[in-house]
């Protein structure tokens, strides 16, 4: 490890910069969808999906993990998913129940983490959570792509395929939420129980 790497603060990493860009892209995507620019919205959504993969890959590959990144990455994921789903609901591409389920799960987790840990419980991302994100970050762009006039007219099956991915991702969101909730209770119990 170089002297520069030793002196660099924990938060000054490339993955954290990518996560910050993801935060900034979320309102851009929402505006593009609401303003009726599905093509550019699709581009920004693809960038969001790639950045979600890239920050984790760089953190692992180049040993640039940080406490800040571990806390911010799931927040960026959840905000992105909520914003994307809500935007597609507002434009009529998704049924309302999808956003209700996604928001309800996240609200329960926020309340649990606040009550049990007064903040971030510092939990590792589960495989269920990763698969959930992958399904949604594939299904949602394809769903947006299906809204392009030429695709909608000549390949209506694209929307059906996209909805299958999104619905599976929504089920995965609930499953991941249940896993995180149980993990919080286990960690809280472990912290509260004195070592013998």
Topology diagram in text:
Elements: H1 3-7, H2 14-34, H3 38-61, H4 67-90, H5 96-117, H6 127-146, H7 149-154, H8 157-192
Helix pairs in contact: 2-3, 2-4, 3-4, 3-6, 4-5, 4-6, 5-8, 6-8
Keywords:
globular; mainly alpha; 196 residues
Describe the fold and architecture.
The chain is built from eight helices and no strands. With 196 residues, the protein is mainly alpha-helical. The chain is globular and about 65 Å long.
- Count of distinct strands: 0
Sum up the overall morphology in one term. globular
Radius of gyration: 18 Å
> Roughly how many Å apart are the termini?
38 Å
Q: Which class do the helix and strand fractions yield?
A: mainly alpha
pLDDT < 50 stretches = 1-7
Tally of alpha and pi helices: 8
- Beta content comes to under 5%
- The overall pLDDT, averaged over residues, is 83
Give the quaternary arrangement of the chains: single chain
In N-to-C order, the SSE pattern is HHHHHHHH
Share of helix, binned: over 70%
Query: What can be said about the biggest beta sheet?
Result: none
How would you briefly describe this protein structure?
This protein has 196 residues and is an all-alpha fold.
């Amino acid at each position: 490890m170089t002297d520069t790497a030793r002196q660099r603060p924990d938060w000054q990493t490339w993955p954290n910069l990518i996560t910050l860009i993801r935060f900034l892209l979320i309102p851009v995507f929402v505006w593009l969808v609401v303003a009726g620019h599905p093509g550019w919205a699709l581009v920004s959504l693809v960038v969001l999906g790639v950045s979600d993969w890239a920050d984790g890959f760089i953190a692992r590959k180049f040993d640039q993990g940080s406490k800040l990144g571990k806390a911010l990455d799931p927040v960026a994921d959840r905000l992105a998913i909520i914003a994307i789903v809500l935007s597609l609901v507002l434009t009529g591409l998704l049924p309302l129940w999808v956003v209700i389920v996604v928001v309800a799960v996240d609200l329960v987790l926020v309340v649990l983490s606040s009550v049990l840990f007064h903040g971030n419980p510092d939990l590792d991302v589960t495989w269920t959570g990763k698969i959930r994100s992958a399904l949604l970050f594939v299904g949602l762009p394809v769903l947006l792509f299906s809204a392009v006039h030429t695709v909608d007219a000549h390949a209506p099956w694209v929307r059906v395929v996209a909805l299958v991915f999104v619905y599976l991702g929504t089920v995965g969101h609930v499953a991941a939420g249940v896993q995180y909730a149980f993990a919080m209770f286990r960690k809280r119990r472990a912290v509260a129980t004195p070592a013998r």
